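User: Please predict the structure of the protein below. I'd like the answer in structure-token form so I can feed it into my own downstream comparison script.

Assistant: Understood. Taking the following sequence of 366 residues as input:
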Amino acid sequence: MRKFIILSCLSFSLIVLTACGSSEEITEYIDVSFSGVDTMGEASYSLNDEELIEDVFDINLEDEFPDEETAEEIDTMLDAYKIKLENDEELSNGDTVKLTANVNEEKTDKIKGGEKEVTVEGLEEPKTLTSKDVEENLVLNFNGVSGRGKAQIDTTFDEGFLNDIVYNIENDGTLKNGDKAKLDLDDDFVETLNNNGYILEEDFSPTFEVKGLESVAEKADDIKNLKDVKRYLKEELNDKYKDTDYSIGPNKKYEIKEEALMYRQFAEEEDGESSSEMFGSGTNDLEEGHGSLIGIYSIEQYNVSDDEEELEEEFTAMYGFSGIILDDDSKANISKLETVSEEKDDSYSLDSVIQLYEGEGYEKVK
């Protein structure tokens, strides 16, 4: 039958017009639409494949289901074209968008490709968001310590969208007093604004002064009353490992030797075990707190009974303070220091214990 039609078409022009027909122009079934705001619009397309199938195969999909052979032809046809939009972003009303449809003729002769140009229209006039708008309607508070500060953001915009959008600050988490905090203008933020009818003014760059963060010393020697802190540390240590004096029963006696004094400005923010977790016997304040001064001590614990002393245990202890916050005079408030302590049994050498803390950012105090 196919050979007969071809031969007929070659022989009779009338049959060419009536029996052979012509391939459908696929671009006639493609709609181009526009979204966004003027100057920042985007173009997209959609193919009305249902109408295309009905016209090409002369069927009504609502009333009949294609037979197996026709269904295969439909699948082949729908896999035979590629559509491309040129200049489909940052559009303004009046711009022209070019759509090109290419068809693989080796797969199907049911459709043919082509081109068409569509004029951009219907984009909304954008509202302009200014630096002044943002600076007047974002309320920022800065929490934490200087150098590791984080921004807390509240809004007072009248419009709901501008109240609900997520605002972020560049370098959040490493802010320090005196910085000029800037709004993070990543692609998602700008796209969200555009999709809701806003564009940014030229040179948009709202800034906020970072202030109010607590201060911790960069080095232990920057603590003006370091001698007082060290003296208080020694007093607290001796109270923790205090010789007992019970009138009945055995007593404990401790020999304490300071091996190292170490300091860390900022707690490390990383996954994995901290040395505190490795010690496995106490607080996580050491890992969480900034401004930590710790001592590493070799301790011998004796059992004293009837004037006889017997070495009961040897271990390495860490004892110190975390959260050493400085006032305006760079002095630590002794009454607000947080105590941290851990013990390591004698299966660990002194050097290995010190190395563990050095690995967490502690440095020896000279």
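That's the full token string. Residues 127-209 form one domain.
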